[in-house]
Amino acid sequence: MEIWILATLFAAAVQTLRFALQKRLKGLGLSTGGATLARFVWAVPLAWGAAFWLTAGDVPHIAPAFWPWAMMGGLGQIVATFATITLFSLRSFAVGIAFTKTETIQVAAFSAIALGEAVSGTGLGAILLGVAGVIVLSRPQRISGAGWITPATGWGLLAGGLFGISAIGYRGATLAVESPDGLTRAMVSLAAVTLFQTIVLGLWLIWRESGEVGRVARAWRATLPVGITGVLGSAGWFWAFALQNAAYVRSLGQIELIFSLLISVLWFRERPRLTDMGGMALLALSIVGIVWAA
Fold it and tell me: What count of other Cβ atoms lies within 10 Å of the Cβ of residue 165?
C-alpha cells in the first residue's frame, strides 16, 4: 500500500479522536476560538521539534512561493472553521453542512487550476460518488425543493471552498520545500503553518476576546491532548499532501465519517439508519475508486 494512503488513513483516524477531545473543551468554558487555538498552540513546539529532528538542524532550501502557499492554507483553514461554526446558529444547519461536503469537488477544480494537477475521469467519478455518500451521511432529515436555497447554503459552500483552498495551499507549500523526502517537506511546512496560525488566531483573540488566551493557557492539562492529536493528524495530512494530488487525499480522507459512524455503533451502541448504511456503501465504493485512479 502506498505511503500517501497510509498517511491519509492515519490522519483521518487521529482527527476523529481530536474532534472528540476538542468537543470536551467547550465544557471548560473556552470559546470556539479558544478551543481552536488549543489545537494550534501546543502543536507549534511539537511540529518544530519534529522538523528539527528530521532535518538535523539543516533546514532544506525553501522556494519563495512557499510563504504565499502556506499563508493561504493557514488562513483558509481558520476562516473555513469559523464559517462552519456559523452554521450552528442557523436553523437550516443540515443544508449548510451538506454543502460543505462539496469540498472535494472544489479541491479537484482548484488543484487543476492552481497547480496543474488534474484528476482522471475515474478519479472524478470516484470523488463524485464520495460526495454523494457524505451528503447522505450528513443529512439528518430529508430536505427538498426551496429548502436547499437558504443562507446556510452560502455558508456551506464558502466553508467547503475555503477548506479546499486550504488543502491546495498545503499541497503547494510542501512542493516548495526542496527535499527528496516527503516527510521532511511535510513537517517543515507544518511547523511554519502552525506557527503562523497560532500568531494570527492569538492576535485575533486578544483583540476580540479579552482573557481567552489566558484561559487556554490555564487549561493546559486538558488542551495538551488536543494539541498532540492535532499535530499528529496534521502531520499525516501534510505527509499525504507532499506525496499526492490534494483532491485524492481529501477524498480518501472522508473515510473519517466511516470511522465516526463505527465509533457511534461499536462504542456508544447507537443503531445506524438505513441511509447511514447506504452512505457508507457509497463512500466505500468511492475509496476503492480513488485508490484505483491514483
Answer: 22
Block residue for cell numbers 516548495: 176
**Among 98-102, 143-147, 159-163, 229-233, which is the least confidently predicted range?**
143-147
Q: What's the angle, vertex CA 203, arms to CA 176 and CA 93, rounded to 5?
A: 85
CA distance 206 to 122: 48
Give per-residue pLDDT as tens, 172-216: 999 999 999 999 999 999 999 999 999 999 999 999 998 889 988
SS (H, E, C) 85-143: HHHHHCCCHHHHHHHHCCHHHHHHHHHHHHHCCCCCHHHHHHHHHHHHHHHHHHCCCCC
d(CA 134, CA 128): 10
Determine the residue type at 74: G
- b/e sequence 148-160, b meaning 16+ C-beta within 10 Å: eebebbebbbbbb
* Cα gap 220→226, rounded to integer Å: 10
Amino acid at 72: M
